[in-house]
Amino acid sequence: MSRNGPLALAYHALFVTFMLAPILVVCFVAFTPEGYLSFPTDRWSLRWFYAIGRYPEFIAAFWRSLWLGALSSAIAVALSVPAALAIARYRFRGREAMTALFMSPLMIPHVVLGVAFLRFFTQIGLGGTFTGLVLSHIVIVLPFALRLTLASAVGMDRAIEHAAISLGASDATVLRRITLPLVLPGLVSGWALAFINSFDEVTMTVFIAAPGTETLPVRMFLYIQDNIDPLVTSVSACVIAITVLALVALDRAYGLERLLVGRSGDGR
Amino acid sequence: MSSLASLRVAKAPYLLTLPALLLFAGVVIAPLVMTVLLSFHDWGQYKGIEPVFVLKNWHEVFTDSYFLEMFWRTFRVAFFVTLLTALFGAPEAYILNRMKSPWRGLFLLVVLGPLLLSVVARTLGWALLFGGNSGLVNKALMSMGLASAPVPFMFTETGVIVALAHVLMPYMVLAVWAALQRLDPQVENAAVALGAGPFTVLRRIVLPQVMPGILSGAIIVFALAASAFATPAIIGGRRLKVASTLAYDEFLNTLNWPLGAAVAVLLLVALVAIVVGSSRLVERRYAQVFG
Amino acid sequence: MTFLALEGLGKRFGSHVAVDGLTLGVEKGEFVSLLGPSGCGKTTTLQMIAGFVEPSAGAIRLEGRDLLAVKPAKRGLGIVFQSYALFPHMTVAENVAFGLEMQGVAADERRRRVGETLELVGLAAFSGRFPRQLSGGQQQRVALARALVIRPRILLLDEPLSNLDAKLREEMQIELRQIQRTLGTTTILVTHDQAEAMALSDRLVVMNQGRAEQVGPPHVVYERPATPFVASFLGRTNLVAGETVRPEKIVFAATGLAGKVRTRIFQGNHWLYQVETASGLLTVIRQNSGEAMPGEGEQVHLAWGKA
Asked: Is the Cβ pair C73, A163 closer than 8 Å?
């Protein structure tokens, strides 16, 4: 394969600068010693990181987001595994329609889902509750969980299970000893991708979260709507740091390209 | 025995998908149907929502020039965001694809990683970069001689477009990258062997083959840009409304839910029509070559 | 009594008939190959014996008992799959031990039998490896060991050698034959490779469009093909005046059918000729004995003994 010329590399440098600039700016400003938005010039300070501790709303919202993401992703994966096995293994009436339905939260604008959930949860008495948040997050992260479990279910050689059956394994044993261990990588990365998406979701959640059930991105968004000060940059810097760590771990474990491009057929 | 077994086989996929199906029927289909119904309800400042069937909201959405202007702005922003991402994202994907082992993986992570970073945090970064007349972006533009006076970015369409292009850029790079992976590198060499220069190879060999990737990336970016919320809300502010921020206002500030529902449903219908229509077109155009 | 009996076995998928009234008896200890082109129903037949596909018609009896009434997990058959289907998350030893574990064999006994079987296939040194750390041929042996260790009543082989390169395939054929002879396991092989089927089996079942075209020992089927399909599927043939003649049976002689050499291809141990004659273009194969052979364009005479 031929190399990139100097022009291409210059373009690449500009592009990477464009992609990183806003992220780096947030992280820099978070270290300002001043009481207003500015770049730390001669002195770096952690005062705005300590300041987070004085705003219990941010701390509470962080733990709520973490718990919400973990729980809704786990349930989404639990629902995805049987559905993925059915879609990968069987040709049945309504298979395409069902797949499209499960993937539809990717297509439907989150603002529309937010509107719909607000109306629905208010009607059935779940308005502003954590249960409502969990239900809605399961729905929006399920496509991510399903896509990765489906990829590993499709990539799996059916003969492996047949081999286990021919050796005398019962259905339950095949599931426990063969099928689940083999879809486990897809399951774990599906959960991780679902978690990240739940953890970052703001558009839909902003409609259905009440003051007691705000998630971290919602709290950040509402805070920014009122005023932008260094506090929100230090909170953002923390969120960025946590996500980057998770990303690097995920990249090591599964490969970010595989995760995002979602290629199947590499079961072996 | 055989009929029993075949019955078991026929039932299995439905049993396996049943839990997810029940959830989606209850928590996706029902709320969407309710929202459509809501858009036909009446609303008054003091009486609240009245469950009657009126076309008032739809009439208002289609005739009031305010809504027309707002939807026009929404799709104009989405169009320019799509154009920017295609124009700048496709070459970057090509350059990334030509990189060698450690750099390739590293920069792929750098370019695609932001996809999974908080949208609020990334938008906040743009708000800081744009910030007032002394913002970093303006300083850079003026020092490079690209602007003589500070360009207003905050609370303008330009600012929303630039920030959204950044937020959605990874989707375009990803789509083009995926298309490039399917490309046989030998084909480029074959063209070179036949006497084609690098520019000709790019224009006649590479571009036509990655076009489906660019188009599918464009469809994704357009749909996401037209329904984006946090970025236009933060950069656009309270005055520069797009469809999603307007729906938010109607629901949580004005409390006119039926009107907000009409805006949301119209956005959904318009987007589904555009996305499905253009996907069909793209598929038909490329079915013969890449089927 | 026949050990394994297929009685009028049939399978339809919708309107497509995959297997059409197949009747076959297999004796204890016998090595039988189901041979035919892809789509001839040989794999479906194997899957019906294994229990992964349910027959639409007919019966399968093992030692007189109805095999179809037995669940796949209880049939006690050893299967080697085309893809090997090794458990990728288990070591070689764990793979081989799995079937014994399912039978509830005690750990000591299990370890002993796994060791024995790995010894048999020459992989004793690899028991701690994972499948992906093995070569194709080694994976193949693990699959064989895993199927044999449970002392199966029948060993089913589904295109087991098709993923190996030519040289390795030949080695494995010899090894497979020796192991089968040593253990005396009744074996059914499914393959599209006629050389493999002829090399390994006691009897061939040549299948076409869901039916058995001919059943018999390899040399009989080869020498006296019952149908034109069998003749053309098993090796090259020439059709001269309604009679099939194998290319290697034709010799260059002083008299006989006159012809002209159109092409001559050297294939190492033999020469492949295309000769233009009054009866059409004939294929001739001559052993390479080091002697001078007719060149392209030369006039020759062809002769063969009447079958």
From this structure: no
Q: What are C32-70's pLDDT values in tens digits?
A: 999 999 889 999 999 999 999 999 999 999 999 999 999
Count Cβ–Cβ pairs < 8 Å, chain A vs chain C: 61
Residue A175 touches chain B, beta carbons under 8 Å: no
C22: distance to nearest CA of chain B, Å? 19
- Check residue A265 and give its pLDDT: 32
Is the CB of B131 inside 8 Å of chain A's CB atoms? Answer: yes
A135 compared with C255, residue with greater pLDDT: A135
Rounded to a whole number of angstroms, the distance from the CA of C249 to the nearest CA of chain A is 43
DSSP A212: G
Domain boundaries, chain B: 1-38, 55-290
Same domain, C275 and C225: no
In terms of CA atoms, which chain B residue is nearest residue A138?
Answer: B23
CB contact under 8 A, B98 and A240: no
One domain, residues C113 and C166: yes
Chain C residues in contact with A172 (beta carbon < 8 A): none
From first to last of its 268 residues, chain A has per-residue pLDDT tens of 467 889 999 999 999 999 999 999 999 989 988 877 777 777 888 888 998 988 899 999 999 999 999 999 999 999 999 999 999 988 888 899 999 999 999 889 999 999 999 999 999 999 999 999 999 999 999 999 999 999 889 888 889 999 999 999 999 999 999 999 998 888 988 998 899 999 999 999 999 999 889 999 999 999 998 888 889 999 999 999 988 888 888 778 777 767 766 543 332 2
Residue of chain C with shortest Cα separation from A181: C89
- Domain locations along chain A: 63-261
CATH topology of domain B55-290: MetI-like fold (1.10.3720)
Mutate: best of C52, C54, C56, C71, partner B, most B CBs <10 A: C54
For residue C86, the enclosing domain spans: 4-229
Q: Do B2 and C54 touch (CB under 8 A)?
A: yes
Give pTM, 2 decimals.
0.83
Are C294 and C257 within 8 A, CB to CB?
no
A246-260, B251-265, C67-81: least confidently modelled range: A246-260
Report the pLDDT value the prediction gives residue A262, as an integer from 0 to 100.
52
What's the CATH fold of domain A63-261?
MetI-like fold (1.10.3720)
pLDDT band at C110 (very low <50, low <70, confident <90, very high): very high
Whether residues C11 and C147 fall in one domain: yes
Q: What is the CATH number of the domain that holds C23?
A: 3.40.50.300
Task: Return the CATH number at C270.
Answer: 2.40.50.140
Question: Contact at 8 Å (CB) between A138 and A119?
Answer: no
Pick among A119, A206, A207 to test the B interface (most B CBs inside 10 A): A119
Shortest Cα distance from A15 to chain C (angstroms)? 40
pLDDT of residue B35: 95
Number of domains into which chain C is organized: 2
Cβ of residue A169 closer than 8 Å to a chain C Cβ: yes
CB-based contact (8 Å) between C75 and chain A?
A: yes
Rounded CA-CA distance C125/C127 in Å is: 6
Which of C13, C54, C81 to mutate: most A Cβ within 10 Å? C81
The answer to whether residue B5 neighbours chain C at the CB level (below 8 Å) is: yes
